[in-house]
Amino acid sequence: MAIFNFYLFNRDGTCVLYREWRREKKAVMSMEQELKLMYGMLLSLRSFALKLSTAAGIQQVNSFETSQYKLNYLETPTGLKMVLNTDPNATGIPELMRSIYQAYVDAFKSTRHFDTLNITLRKQ
């Protein structure tokens, strides 16, 4: 299983964390442009799912897949948006993303003044 990269956006659309592990193709845009493009795509996917739904209620996009990667997506009740790009054959990703979210919640609870916590955008 290969994990390519991870994005964590807050409810305002700011990327508070980015990690990269494996990227064969060099990005053709700046990191700022990539983050805006990713967040915009998430909003578009949500809107697309809602408008094409044949059932009432909230529609959740969990993933979409190409021949080269699978974009796994989790939106939390608090508005966090997590993206984990993996190879298409990766398994157990929804559980992994829920575990990451739980670790985030635990860290949030332990830092009572999260608004003052300085989380920097890092590329590794």
From TrEMBL:
The keyword Endoplasmic reticulum applies. It is found in: Endoplasmic reticulum; Golgi apparatus, cis-Golgi network. GO terms for cellular component: endoplasmic reticulum; Golgi apparatus; TRAPP complex. Keywords: Endoplasmic reticulum, ER-Golgi transport, Golgi apparatus, Transport. Belongs to the TRAPP small subunits family. BET5 subfamily. Part of the multisubunit transport protein particle (TRAPP) complex. This is Trafficking protein particle complex subunit. It comes from Litomosoides sigmodontis (Filarial nematode worm).
